[in-house]
Amino acid sequence: MNTSDNEKKGMCAQCSGSACYPLAGAGDELPDLDKAPDFCPMRRLSATVDAANREYSRPEIQEFARLASIQEAECYEVSSKGIRTIIPRIEEIIDFAGKCNYSRIGIAFCVGLREEARLTQKIFEQKGFEVISVNCKVGRVPKESIGLAGDEKIMGAGLFEPMCNPIAQAEILNAEEVDLAVLLGLCVGHDTLFFKYCRVPCTVLAVKDRVLGHNPLAALYLSSGPYYGRIRSTVDKTAKGSKVVLPDD
Question: Where are the domains of the chain?
């Protein structure tokens, strides 16, 4: 990868972060961005970053961001022994929903995580929230209706197999006027459609990983060894056809 390529795209994952998160006192002058890497978005797309930052001047956005940052800080404990984490994600969601004065929580879940959804709903209800839950097979739309052949279905051609329906899940939670939508284990791509159609604040409790107990980062941690070393192999997996683009509306 040459320098000209690097200058054309953000590569924050390859940076130490010293430009955006320098080790400095609260009142210290921050380092000059001229010292940041050429690929730094604060240099390359400064107008975009400035416009994004101006959004926080909107009172509702500022308050939401303020509460989210308070919630972030409450997940840590700093002591003479260092910093440690103290709150699991489900408690973080509960606490944040409380800070926002939310009372109705929606759960959009995969049917493969039905038991986890039941437990999640019970926990939310035990904390005083009204809970609306909707599973991914709502609508019972056959997969053939979106163009799948019988041999492309999980169980084959001989059985009825409803498609996952994240659009209906999102629209149901919109119609139920939930304050916060919580995703639980939606498939890759189905979660994308949910985010596109959901019109209420939403967050994720857990993402699906059928092999690793819904902990997809485990594959990264194991990729330096023999079990998932294939993940680091150099293979071009990109397709050469027309890109699939979702409509704006």
Answer: 37-87, 88-233
Q: Which helix (H) or strand (E) holds 60?
A: helix 59-74
Q: Which of 180, 179, 205 is closest to 191 using CA atoms?
A: 205
CATH architecture of structural domain 88-233: 3-Layer(aba) Sandwich (3.40)
Instruction: Report the distance separating Cα 114 and Cα 99, nearest Å.
Output: 28
Phi, psi values for residue 212, rounded to 5°: -110, 35
| pTM of the full structure | 0.91
How far, in Å, CA of 175 to CA of 1, rounded?
48
Note down pLDDT in tens along the chain; length 249 residues: 344 555 568 899 999 988 999 888 998 999 899 989 999 999 999 999 999 999 999 999 999 999 999 999 999 999 999 999 999 999 999 999 999 999 999 999 999 999 999 999 999 999 999 999 999 999 999 999 999 999 999 999 999 999 999 999 999 999 999 999 999 999 999 999 999 999 999 999 999 999 999 999 999 999 999 889 999 999 898 888 899 999 998
Among 210, 200, 71, 89, CA closest to 134: 200
Rounded Cα gap, residues 165 and 178, in angstroms: 18
- Residue whose token pair is 């919580």: 182
Burial group, residue 117, by CB count within 10 angstroms (0-12, 13-18, 19+): buried
